[in-house]
Amino acid sequence: MMLFAQGVNFQNLTYAEALEKAKAENKLVFMDCYTSWCGPCKMMTNEVFPQKEAGDYFNPLFVCVKFDMEKGEGVELAKKFEVRAYPTFLIIRPDGTVQHRVVGGGDLKGFIERVAKGLDEKTSLLYLDEKYESGKMKKKELPAYYEALQDAYMSEKAQKVYDELLAQLTEKDKLKADYWAVMSSSKMGSDDFNLILANLPKFEKNIGKEKLDEFLYQSYSSALSRYMYGRKTEGLPALADLKTQIDALDIEQKQELLDLYELADIALSKDAKRFVDVFEKRAAGNLNEFLPLLYVARLLDSELMKADYPRLVAATEKVLGGLKEGQEKDYLEYSIYNFTKKA
């Protein structure tokens, strides 16, 4: 008797046995390709796949198996399926044909949506690959193919399809929901990104506020992080121009972006005094807002005074007191240790 009712039933089968069982049960094979050191792999194993909703979805559709790509049969399977990133999830037909590939984990709802695309013939990677290679793929089908290639971590081919599609799009096309998959890959500072900024009401109407806000938040938070962490900023607007653009946005996460801007401005100006004041103020906030401060503290190490460190220690201890055991707690304890040495 198998006791997997509360989650995904990963069965102890060889690859050949999984194919045989899938054929007998009229199912597909769902293969989890993982490694022992992969953090997202562990997250999927410990937090996503044990959920009852995961079992309810996967178990009726698939014979589910998992292989460590660095041990046993997994070594050959990694070569056979050209697995180069982890976790990789394969949907395989009983005859051994790979129907779809998904790379990377995520929350259950989003992950099921990605897997479901592999069950729909018109959005599965195999179908789209074959249609593209036949030369019969229409312009309206290219976005789905581009998304499937991105999801499969096939970056080189995805870029080729992206360039091919972009060359065919008129400005009117670019405003349509049909082509948002391509437009949402626009890099900040590019003509297409500026087109989005110039037409925010139209994009909101066509793709919905939630999608648009998420795109804007991710774009600006990524740009601000590059300034904040001292990474390359070629091609990005100047930091002051980013602030002007953020001020004009109407999104729920606007304050989060303004907080990131404040940190980026401090890091760029090396303003240690302002940094310590902000560090203490944000110790009352949530952990995700506090963690970037610890990194900026390292960047400003040569600017900070000996008298600043006791204040950093006290603020970090305040955050630490509200945490359970885990990686973040270890990181905060290590930060306190380093701050104390310099006090």
Describe this structure in words.
With 343 residues, the protein is of the alpha+beta class. The chain folds into three domains: 15-119, Glutaredoxin, CATH 3.40.30; 186-269, no CATH class; 271-342, no CATH class. It is 59% helix and 7% strand. The protein contains 19 helices and four strands. It has helices at 15-25, 39-48, 52-61, 73-80, 108-117, 125-134, 142-151, 155-168, 171-174, 180-183, 191-198, 200-207, 209-228, 239-247, 254-269, 272-282, 287-299, 309-320, 327-342; strands at 28-34, 62-68, 88-92, 98-103. The protein has a four-stranded mixed sheet, with helices on both faces. α7 runs antiparallel to α8. The longest helix has 20 residues, at 209-228. It is globular and about 70 Å long. Keywords: Redox-active center, Signal. This is Thioredoxin family protein. It comes from Candidatus Odoribacter faecigallinarum.
Keywords:
343 residues; Glutaredoxin; alpha+beta; Thioredoxin_domain; signal; globular; Thioredoxin_CS
Q: Concise description?
A:
With 343 residues, the chain is an alpha+beta fold. 59% of the residues lie in helices and 7% in strands.
What's the overall geometry?
globular
Number of strands: 4
Domain unit count:
3
CATH class of the largest domain: Alpha Beta
CATH architecture of the largest domain: 3-Layer(aba) Sandwich
Give average pLDDT, whole number: 93
Q: Whole-number radius of gyration?
A: 24 Å
Q: Bin the strand percentage.
A: 5-15%
CATH fold topology of the largest domain: Glutaredoxin
- Low-pLDDT runs of 5+ residues are none
Helix content estimate:
55-70%
What letter string, H or E per element, gives the SSE order? HEHHEHEEHHHHHHHHHHHHHHH
Q: How many strands, what sense, and barrel or not for the largest sheet? A: 4 strands, mixed
What is the CATH superfamily classification of the largest domain?
A: Glutaredoxin
Strand order of the largest sheet: 2-1-3-4
Organism: Candidatus Odoribacter faecigallinarum
Domain Thioredoxin: 1-121
Keywords: Redox-active center, Signal
Protein name: Thioredoxin family protein
